């Protein structure tokens, strides 16, 4: 995502891999819609987009004074946060933006406008830097043969660039190590088949696409050396919310003695929640399951469940790869120290 003449610009992830189209959001409601309909998706990416959304709300506002502008920004934050409840990066970014606006309020509305754009640029820059750091810390965890399984898309598209789960893979590949990625297609939204496969293919990183229900068989056949996934929220005890299907992978990994890593920046850690059962799980429309590419695949009249995320208990996680290093179990102290460092 990027800022261009008072617009938040996004690569339309709904049209990848077939078309590379830019969407220009010129007001807050367009940004909110893009987050909701998953034109932009992935926890850090929606955080960065929401930060620019707040900057945009300030830029187009006609509020006469700082107090009125702050009121509008509080409203903007509430609107953005409501679009996707599970990824904490969204509220993390809007909270930071509102804090910056409040700190500048004595200097008037123009100072807030300038300051918010500057803050959004910083969030984007920092996100990119943390992805590279995650890559450096995570690459040594990939076993020598280099067969890594990943789920959903936690790559450049899901972040400011480079990715979280894909960062150790990119770094190891860049070091000339053998890498082969098994990409879960990730039903029902197909982020793996559409986005991760596209990203890896573009980068020349060898991959094999598998359907989600092949993962266990691949593990049993000895074709998986480790699993790396991203996260939408990590609670104080190390429980992790991520794309639906992640929990099943972690159970399978344990059954086969395969290391299971989560890669995420400090902005994904939510110490206000003690454990994963407290995480709000986004329910998306039944139609995203009953239909594929606009075509109904289930019988007319049948509805489907669609929890978009699940929670992996910390006991199934071998390590959490952050920009500050790898946190190993028991997670709580390491997560608290990490957030302290990031604050
Ligand atoms: O529904 P999505 O596509 O936004 O879900 C994305 C994921 O679950 C990712 O694994 C997570 O946000 C981490 S992205 C670096």
Compute the average pLDDT: 97
Poorly predicted runs are: none
One letter per element, helices H and strands E, the order comes to: EEEHHHHHEHEHEHEEEHEEHEEEEEH
Largest beta-sheet details: 7 strands, mixed
What count of domains describes the coordinates?
2
Query: Total helix count?
Result: 11
Q: Which CATH first-tier class of the largest domain would you pick?
A: Alpha Beta
Describe this structure in words.
By secondary structure, this protein is α/β, with parallel strands linked by helices. It has two domains: 2-132, Up-down Bundle (Four Helix Bundle (Hemerythrin (Met), subunit A)); 136-342, Translation initiation factor eif-2b, domain 2 (Rossmann fold), CATH 3.40.50.10470. It contains eleven helices and 16 strands. The protein has helices at residues 28-36, 43-60, 66-81, 88-103, 109-138, 166-174, 191-203, 215-220, 246-256, 287-290, 331-342; strands at residues 2-3, 8-11, 22-25, 147-150, 180-184, 207-210, 226-229, 233-235, 240-243, 260-263, 269-270, 291-292, 295-296, 309-312, 319-322, 325-327. The strands form four sheets. Strands 6-5-4-7-10-15-16 form a seven-stranded mixed beta sheet, with helices on both faces. A four-stranded mixed beta sheet has the order 11-8-9-14, covered by helices on one side. It has a three-stranded antiparallel beta sheet with strand order 1-2-3. A hairpin with a 2-residue loop joins strand 12 (291-292) and strand 13. Helix 3 runs antiparallel to helix 4 and helix 5 packs across helix 6. It is globular. The two termini are 24 Å apart. The mean pLDDT is 97. The structure holds 5-S-methyl-1-O-phosphono-5-thio-D-ribulose. Residues 41-44, 87, 152, 154, 158-159, 164, 191, 229-232, 242-243, 308 line the site of 5-S-methyl-1-O-phosphono-5-thio-D-ribulose (MRU).
